[in-house]
Amino acid sequence: MAQAMQVACRRKGTHMQLTTDALLESVQAWVEIESPTNVASGVNRVADHAEGLLRSMGASIERTPGVDGFGDILIGRIAGEHNGPGILLLGHMDTVHQPGTFAFRREGGRAYGPGIYDMKGGNAMAFSALAALQAEGRRPRLGVSVMMIPDEEVGSPTSRAAIEAEARRHRLVLVVEPSGEGGKVTIARHGIARWHLRTIGRPAHAGAYHAEGRSAVREMAHHILALEALTDHARNFYVNIGTVTGGTHENMVPAECRAICYALVPTAREEAELRAAVMSLARHDPDVTTEVTEGLGRPPFSKTPAIQALYDHALALSREIGFEVKGERVAGGGSDGNFTGALGVPTLDGLGVVGGGPHTREEYIDLAWLVPRTRLLMRLFETLGPGVAGL
After folding, report:
1. Mean pLDDT of 346-361
2. Distance between CA 154 and CA 369 in Å, rounded?
C-alpha cells in the first residue's frame, strides 16, 4: 500500500481532504499487522509501520529496543511553531488478540478487526491528522512527541518509567484510546490495583493424619472474604479475587494456595484503603503464613481545572467542525493516560475512534465518525498552544 494512501489524505487542488475511505485504508494497514503483546516481532512490525509514517512527516525518531520479551518503544518528534514543552501523543501498538483470531472486514457502516477499536483506529486517525497538516505545509502549534507503547495491554511493565519521564517534559498529553459511550471524551480514569496473595500451611494426609495438617486453602478463604467485603458499588470501588489455585490432591491437606486480587480504585482514598487491608490481613491459623506482593497497577487520575479547560477547548472545536463530542467520561478501564494524569500533567484521553466490542471477536469502529474525529485531532494540533486552554 502506497505511503500516500497510508496517510489517509486525498489531494483536491492544493488542499488535502480527509475522506472515510482513505482513513479506513490507513486503519486497515495498522490492523492487518497482527500484534498481540506477547509476540514482540508482531509489535515491532507495527513499530516499523509507524516509524515509516513518522519519517515521511519529517519526524526525528527515537526507538528503544524492547526488554523482557516485549516490543520496542517508539518516539517520533515533530517540530511545532513554538519552542518549549509540547504535546505528548500516546498510543499503544499491542492487542489482546492472538494471530489468526479473526480478520479485518467492512460491513455497512462498521469495520471490524483485531485491535481496530483498542486502539489501532485511534493511532491511524492521529497519524493521519498530523500527515494532513504536514501535506498542507503547516506544523502543529506546539511540538508533538508521538509515543507508541508495546505492552499497554498487560499494564505497560517495561514502558511506564519512559512514559512518565516523557510526560514530565511536556505541557500536556493527548491519548487516542477509543472514546466511550458513543463518543465521550475521557477526562478522568479510575485506577487499577493488583495484589498477589500466597498462603503457606502444612501438608498432611487428609484421613488418618488430618489434625497434623494446616490448610492454606482455608486461610486463603478467610482472606478472600475479607478483601471482597471492601467492595462498595456506590463508590465504584470493586475488589475481585479473580483466580485461586491451591492444593495438590483431594486427600491431602493443602500446603499452599495462591490468589490474585484485582481492584478498581476510583481515587487514591480507595487505593490506600485496599493497601491497608491487604497489609493487615488477619491471621486465622497461627501456623499458616501469608505473603503479599504488589502487582502491576495503574494510579487513578481525576479531572483538574486544566483538564476541564482542555475538554472545553475540544468541545468548542468539535462544534466548529460541525459535530459535538458526546460529553465527559470517567472511565473504569485503564490506559497509559493513568500514569500521566496521576503526575498532574493535563491529560485528555479517549480521543480515538467511536465503536465497541473491545477485546472480543466483534471489535468494531463506526465509520461515520472517522472524518470528524480526525479533523478534531487535526484542529487540536493546530490550536493548542500558549494562551489556549489555560496553557
Report:
1. 97
2. 28
